C-alpha cells in the first residue's frame, strides 16, 4: 500500500484509517477513530477484522493481517477525482416557470442567494423548492443584471449565465475582492 502523504511514517494511523474505511462498507466491522494511538478500540477493530476474515483473533497486526486489511481497503476505497464544474442539463426548450417544482429549483435558489450577497440589485429568494414569487423576483433581477430578457423563467440561457456569475461571485467572496 502506498499511504496517503499525510500517513507517511504513521503506520497506526494508516491502519486505523483503513479499518474505518472498511467499516463504512461492512457494518459488522468495528470502526476506530484514526488518532495514531494503538488503543483498545484499535485492538477491537483489528480483532473484528480478523474474525470477519477467519484469521486467528489476536488483535495484533501481523503481515498476513496487514496485507488483508490493505487489500480490502483498496477494494472499499472510493477513488476521488478533481472536482468538476457543475453542469446542469436542461432539455431543449425546457423552461421552469412560476409555481413549478423541480430538483433544480433548490440549487437555483442557493445560487441566487449567493448572488444576492454579492450584488445588491439581486434580492434574496426564499428556500421553498418551488419557483415562487420571491424566487421569480430574484431571477428577474438577475436577468436584468445579466442583460437577459426579464422573464422570471429559468431557461437554458439564464442557467448558463447563473453558472458563470455564481463562479465569479464565489471567487470574489473567497478571495475577499472588492465588489
Task: Provide keyphrases for this structure.
179 residues, mainly alpha, 6 helices
Show the helix and strand layout.
Layout: H1 11-25, H2 40-53, H3 63-76, H4 105-118, H5 133-146, H6 156-175
Model description:
This protein is mainly alpha-helical. The chain is 51% helix and 0% strand. The protein has six helices and no strands. The radius of gyration is 25 Å and the shape is elongated. The model has no long low-confidence stretch (mean pLDDT 86).
Strand content: under 5%
Which shape, going by the Cα principal axes? elongated
Query: Percent of residues in helical segments?
Result: 40-55%
Number of helices: 6
Distance between the termini: 48 Å
Arithmetic mean pLDDT:
86
Structural class: mainly alpha
Encode the helix/strand succession as letters: HHHHHH
Say how many strands there are: 0
Oligomeric grouping of the chains: single chain
- Biggest beta sheet attributes: none
Low-confidence spans:
none
User: Could you tell me the radius of gyration in angstroms?
Assistant: 25 Å
Concise summary:
With 179 residues, the protein is mainly α.
Amino acid at each position: 500500500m502506498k499511504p496517503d502523504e499525510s500517513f507517511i511514517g504513521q503506520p497506526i494511523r494508516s491502519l486505523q484509517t483503513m479499518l474505518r474505511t472498511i467499516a463504512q462498507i461492512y457494518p459488522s466491522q468495528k470502526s476506530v477513530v484514526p488518532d495514531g494511538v494503538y488503543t483498545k478500540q484499535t485492538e477491537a477493530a483489528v480483532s473484528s477484522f480478523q474474525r470477519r476474515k477467519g484469521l486467528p483473533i489476536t488483535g495484533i497486526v501481523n503481515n498476513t493481517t496487514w496485507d488483508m486489511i490493505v487489500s480490502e481497503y483498496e477494494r472499499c476505497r472510493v477513488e476521488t477525482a478533481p472536482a468538476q464544474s457543475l453542469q446542469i442539463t436542461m432539455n431543449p426548450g425546457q423552461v421552469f416557470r412560476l409555481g413549478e417544482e423541480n430538483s433544480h429549483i433548490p440549487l437555483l435558489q442557493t445560487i441566487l442567494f449567493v448572488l444576492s450577497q454579492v450584488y445588491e440589485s439581486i434580492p434574496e429568494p426564499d428556500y421553498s423548492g418551488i419557483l415562487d414569487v420571491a424566487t421569480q423576483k430574484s431571477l428577474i433581477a438577475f436577468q436584468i443584471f445579466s442583460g437577459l430578457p426579464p422573464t422570471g423563467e429559468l431557461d437554458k440561457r439564464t442557467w448558463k449565465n447563473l453558472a458563470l456569475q455564481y463562479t465569479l461571485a464565489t471567487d470574489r467572496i473567497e478571495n475577499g475582492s472588492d465588489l
